[in-house]
Description:
heterodimer, A: alpha/beta, abc type-2 transporter like fold, 2 domains, 14 helices, B: alpha/beta, Rossmann fold, 6-stranded mixed β-sheet, 4-stranded antiparallel β-sheet, globular
Amino acid sequence: MKQFIGFLRKEFLHIFRDPRTMVIIFLLPIVQLLLFGKVINNDLQDSKIGILDQSHDNTTREITSKLLSSGYFLLGEELQAGDDVEDVFRKGKVKMIVTFGPEFEKSLERDGKADVQLLADASDPNTARILTNYASGIINDYVKKEKLQNIQLPNQINTEVRMLYNEGLKSVYMFVPGIMAMILMLISAMMTSISISREKELGTMEVLLASPLKPIQIILGKVTPYLLLSFINTLTIILLGVFVFGVPIKGSFIFLMAESFLFILMALSLGILISTVAPNQMVAMFISVLALMLPTILLSGFIFPIKNMPWPLQILSNVMPPRWFIVIIRNIMLKGTGILFVWKETLILMFMTFVFIALSIKNFKIRLE
Amino acid sequence: MEKVIEVRNLVKKFGSFVANDHLNFDVYQGEIFGFLGANGAGKTTAMRILCGLSSPTSGEVKVAGYDIYKETEKVKRNIGYMSQKFSLYEDLTIAENIRFFSGIYGISPKDRKAKQDILLRDLGVESSKDALIGSLPLGWKQKLAFSVAIFHDPKIVFLDEPTGGVDPITRRKFWDLIYEASDRGITVFVTTHYMDEAEYCNRVSIMNEGRIEALDTPENLKKQYAAKNMDEVFLKIARNTEAPPKPSPQGRA
């Protein structure tokens, strides 16, 4: 036990003396979360729109003010009939133009029907889609509530949409689990593999192996600090998510931590596996970034939905551990489900951990031959 | 004299490549034993086996009186090892390195402090106790690495090409440390390819293509091969093994 504490002390000295490691461990999680949460924001706020109102009646004015007071839109330019619409878009001043046809109010009251045209700049298709959805939502809502109250149209079906588990469609709800997966992969797998391969590179690994320390003690000594730090990071990300971004934790906090712990173990064993293959720090880093970070970001469903991927990538995404972890975390945090609904994903993570450990032991033995 | 290393018919194969071909030798306590050979002759492989870093294909090996198959743990407690690459942690201070390595070998803090003071005084680096290893000159690092390798008073210390890349004067000073250790009764097992260093050893063995071709004191070897220095001895042995094109009965490829 004393040996072990001595080993841990040494490992923490390595970590605290290396500015790069410190930045990755303590600054990166916070910066990443703030970046994804605040800057790279899929939610639209204050998008500039143009209004081309050919009626100038009460209804169009009210709709315009509803749009502008929704918080999503700002008036960028008021257009006149005959203005060159394309020119306005080309200048890049507005993202969308709302055009009301002539005699809007009259035709609405007379026929129960009126024309609004939404022209969106689809050079950024995602934004265009979201903008038009928001705008037509607001307009429909207004017309239904204010204008059609007394007019009962026959056989009309009212669709009512509710976004469950994330009513505000906040993208930060998606990012928090994703960033957690990414940071834990980075710190647990990458930092562990780098720190073990550094000992190999410096020749100190041989000295350790020639000492009375058993290989398992060496590995545990190398891994434990990163286990602790990853756990602290999990807490930091969750706390930031809850208190800064208002992400709920509907399920059990202890269950959430237990699943995170499992994921950290998985990532650590992956880190050990990488270090048994990599001869030096550069290779370890390269493998980690290429084989872990990119797939975590691209293939785990964190940013791009798995259902939209071509089928070879969908199949590939099954072997990405973060994919399963993200499902678990979303379930616990947003839906409040327990083990009954995520046992399959949990088993998959356990199985992966087991495979990585078995492979590491096998590789390690070959190396000692 | 007590034998601290006994090697009988040691064979190590990597696939079909024979790295150590039936090695037989003994090393006695307090001796400085030079393990010579060209690169790829198999000396590092043999040394790794003696340190328990690798296991032999067949043969009997006893180190410090313990069998390396069954009593690896006890072997490791009784040896020190300094690898080819310089092997202290660059981002730790001298004192922290000593603390870490003495912790591994279970030396009590009280003993450590007493021995650390002596070590620092002997090397004349008391004032640099809290300097990072990375900031020290290479010669100091090597001396420190050696002192740390024998900090737990092992019976044998294994040095794998310890003086690579340093100038002759620093090398000579390093050998003074080796002599001191040998005077304290520590057996020194050293691999090198500097032939002038071979002269400093009590006995040397010369390996070629996985076999030990010669083993004796430097004096006797020079007489036997009618050579002026170890360099010539080494060249003659290397030529002898190349020159006669013996038909190989084993049919090695």
